[in-house]
Design a protein that fits this description.
The complex is a heterodimer.
Chain A lengths: L1 H7 L3 H22 L4 H14 L6 H26 L7 H19 L3 H25 L4 H20 L4 E2 L11 H6 L25 H19 L1 H11 L1 H6 L4 H26 L2 E2 L7 H11 L11 H20 L4 H19 L1 H13 L2 H14 L1
Antiparallel strand pairs in A: 1-2
Helix pairs in contact in A: 2-16, 2-17, 3-14, 4-9, 4-12, 4-13, 4-14, 5-6, 5-7, 5-12, 6-7, 6-12, 9-10, 10-12, 13-14
Chain B lengths: L1 H25 L14 E7 L5 H15 L4 E3 L3 E2 L4 H13 L4 E4 L4 H13 L4 E4 L10 E4 L2 H15 L4 E7 L5 H14 L5 E8 L4 H13 L6 E4 L2 H13 L7 E3 L10 H6 L6 E3 L4 H12 L7 E3 L3 E3 L4 H8 L1 H4 L3
Parallel strand pairs in B: 1-2, 1-3, 1-4, 4-5, 5-6, 6-12, 7-8, 7-9, 9-10
Antiparallel strand pairs in B: 11-13
Helix pairs in contact in B: 2-10, 3-4, 5-6, 7-8
Classes of the chains: A mainly alpha, B alpha/beta.
């Protein structure tokens, strides 16, 4: 009998058991490869289960992503900086300055949106360049430089505006909006789309909401920049090991300055979106946006010590943050409960997305004494 | 390269130091007489946070009204950036300078009580604006009444919805006293019509950018909304943007509060028909200047002055805007 068991155990019946175990393992490792999206999928599922059509329709999703778009764009820039093991705390202020510059150019100088966007981007890039100089050349820690610049830029913003918000809906004497003011709404005033009339995939002829379009384009462009270009490889190299990067011929100073400049450029790019979304530029616009941006980057799987992360991951992180807010809001959860739930879910999302999470689950599954159970289950029929 | 870096840092530091000394030396000295030999009294004003539009308006108006009194000289207004610790230091500075009148908009009551008492102990008359301190030694307290502001908004809601209806409420930061008071007053007033229900209320932190997505979510839920009450104008206008995007702005009434006379403020929005009404929460600047004048000329002043809240309607909006026009006060 003992010999029987010994011979049968490794053969046919246990392979069935092992099959299901390995199937479980295989599905777990499949989940593991998709784990970056699991937090997002769970939130979407909760949204669909609790609110169905009210949550899962194009309008609601557009509104939810549109509300976070400017912070999402900041997060893309922040990803580049964090990949080099730096941090940029000034992005919220740069966005505020970009928003104020845009509104002032529109309200006081009547410039067209096509002129406003590049100016705002240039202003942002200049701010980012200063951050880069401070970090790479003056060798001040990026945390300190950008914290200081946060105040400097906010001060300039408030000085420009006299602490009074500036409206972007400029009304002419006959009660209609001026031409440029009307055009400016396309940057993201709720209910105003771009490319309407053109037949587009998914959305048809209704047009597309510019903040959403802008975020997606920025994500694609910068993901390609990171994964396909030499600069992208250098950014990972600098963040992974700056000394090794320097020894292998990477100009670390230039990479750092470029990264901060791009981050500022993107914040300047997001400025008009914020101004149009609020139909005004507030002197405090963008305050604490840097925290949301950094949160999106980290939830997206980037490491604050540099060298690990991706723009697509950041995009997922941004979606998690904004859709979570949307789902909780649609379910009319109270404000205080929302704070608690949001915090806990962010922690859960980061844990689930940790690269070794599924490996540890898999090894835990492996350690479950399946063979023992197999032995028992095979031995019972023989005994009977 | 390294030496250049050192050089540039040195140049920067020197420049900053020079600018700082220049600023310090140009800071106005306390003068006891003006050119014609009349006595001039120096007034110091400690503002809790310049960056709130209401307080920016207050600063502008205070400078304007102070200029109306030839015997008063307002020192540069200090900004505590919403930090009580900073404000304590700034008030102590004014006490060191031995100003003739000290005006304080306290950031928080507890931390500011001690320096206000210190000023009283040095016989400096103190005027407190809008927020309270835990001491009674000041000459005069001037402030508005947030419960009344909320109550009047509620009365307007009752008038706007004679047959009752669904109301949503956008709240400021939940722990802020103006939020608590405006909410209380509003709920008391709408109780007059039991057919008015607050179906949703959420914290939008006084911000337009937070109010828009919240309103979008409410509209998305599909409940009928008849009226939006926002505890300040930016939140009301943020909700208006969301409703306009859904083409529902004509079916919903919007009520705000604050009524700032700036191009982007609530009075203009009432004029343009976006808000059905707002309420001017007084900045207290005119009264503060008058009280300072009364104190230095030895007149008695009321210990506690509560100012009226002015309702803004489509009928009086143009006149009120002209009266409080930002431009009239200049931005200096």
């Amino acid at each position: 009998m003992t010999t029987d068991v010994q011979t049968t155990t490794p053969s046919s019946p246990p392979t069935d058991q092992l099959d299901s175990a390995s199937r479980l393992r295989r599905s777990l490792s499949l989940l593991g490869s998709l784990q970056g999206y699991i937090g997002l999928v769970l939130i979407v599922l909760v949204g669909i289960i609790t609110k169905g059509q009210i949550f899962w329709n194009q309008q609601n999703l557009t509104q939810a992503i549109g509300a976070f778009s400017s912070r999402g764009i900041l997060a893309v820039g922040e990803t580049l900086v964090i990949l080099t093991a730096g941090i940029d705390l000034s992005v919220g202020s740069i966005l505020g300055l970009g928003s104020m510059v845009s509104a002032l150019l529109l309200a006081r100088h009547g410039l067209s949106p096509f002129a406003i966007l590049p100016i705002s981007m240039a202003v942002g890039a200049l701010c980012g360049f200063c951050n880069g100089i401070g970090t790479a050349w003056l060798k001040i820690q990026s945390f300190v430089v950008t914290l200081a610049m946060l105040n400097v830029i906010r001060g300039i913003d408030r000085q420009l505006s006299d602490n009074v918000s500036v409206g972007t809906q400029i009304v002419t004497s006959n009660g209609t909006l001026t031409k440029n003011s009307h055009a400016f709404q396309a940057f993201g005033t709720p209910g105003h789309n771009v490319l309407s009339g053109v037949n587009l995939p998914f959305v048809g002829k209704a047009g597309i909401y510019y903040p959403v379009l802008a975020l997606i384009v920025v994500v694609i462009v910068f993901q390609l920049l990171l994964s396909k270009s030499k600069l992208g490889r250098h950014i990972y190299a600098v963040g992974g090991n700056p000394t090794a990067a320097r020894l292998s011929g990477v100009n670390v100073t230039a990479v750092t300055i470029t990264v901060f400049t791009l981050c500022g450029l993107l914040a300047g790019f997001a400025g008009p979106i914020d101004a149009a979304y609020n139909a005004s530029a507030d002197p405090l616009a963008g305050t604490s946006y840097e925290l949301d941006a950094i949160a999106a980057v980290v939830i997206g799987g980037a490491s604050l010590s540099g060298g690990r992360g991706s723009v697509v991951g950041t995009f997922v992180g941004a979606l998690i943050l904004t859709l979570l807010d949307n789902v909780l809001g649609l379910n009319s959860i109270s404000d205080n409960a929302q704070l608690i739930i949001k915090g806990l879910i962010v922690i859960a999302a980061v844990v689930i997305q940790r690269p070794d999470f599924f490996r540890s689950v898999v090894s835990a599954v492996r350690r479950i004494p399946i063979p023992t159970r197999a032995r028992q289950s095979t031995s019972t029929p023989e005994e009977s | 390269m390294k030496r250049y870096r050192f050089l540039i840092t040195g140049v920067c530091v020197t420049a900053v130091a020079l600018v700082a000394t220049a600023c310090a030396s140009s800071a106005p000295k306390k003068k006891s007489t003006d050119a014609s030999g009349n006595k001039v009294f120096v007034v110091g004003y400690s503002q809790s946070n310049n960056a709130e539009p209401y307080r920016a308006q207050l600063n502008i108006q205070l400078r304007y009204f102070m200029k109306q009194y030839k015997n008063l000289k307002l020192l540069p207004i200090t900004d505590a950036h919403q930090s009580s610790a900073t404000q304590v230091g700034q008030v102590q500075n004014f006490i060191q300078q031995n100003v003739d009148v000290l005006i304080v908009s306290p950031n928080e009551p507890d931390p500011l009580s001690a320096p206000v008492q210190a000023a009283c102990a040095k016989n400096i008359p103190v005027i407190i604006l809008d927020r309270s301190v835990n001491t009674d030694c000041y000459k005069s307290f001037i402030g508005g009444d947030n419960v009344a502001a909320g109550k009047q908004a509620g009365e307007l809601a009752v008038k706007d919805l004679p047959d009752g209806g669904n109301v949503v409420e956008l709240q400021g930061i939940l722990s802020d006293q103006p939020q608590i008071d405006r909410d209380k007053g509003f709920r008391e007033a709408i109780a007059a019509n039991p057919k008015i229900h607050i179906i949703q209320h959420r914290e939008a932190k006084w911000l337009k950018e937070s109010a828009t997505p919240i309103m979008q979510q409410w509209l998305q839920q599909g409940q009928k909304i008849d009226l939006v009450y926002a505890e300040n104008d930016p939140m009301a206008l943020g909700a208006y943007l969301a409703a306009a995007a859904a083409h529902k702005e004509k079916d919903i009434k919007f009520i705000g509060t604050d009524g700032l006379a700036i191009p982007d403020g609530g009075i203009r929005a009432v004029q343009q028909g976006q808000l059905s009404g707002t309420f001017i929460y007084p900045t207290c600047a005119q009264e503060a200047a008058a009280t300072a004048e009364a104190i230095v000329t030895g007149k008695t002043v009321e210990h506690h002055q509560t100012l009226e809240v002015t309702p803004v309607t489509p009928q009086n909006a143009a006149d009120l805007y002209a009266k409080y026009d930002d431009a009239r006060f200049g931005s200096g």
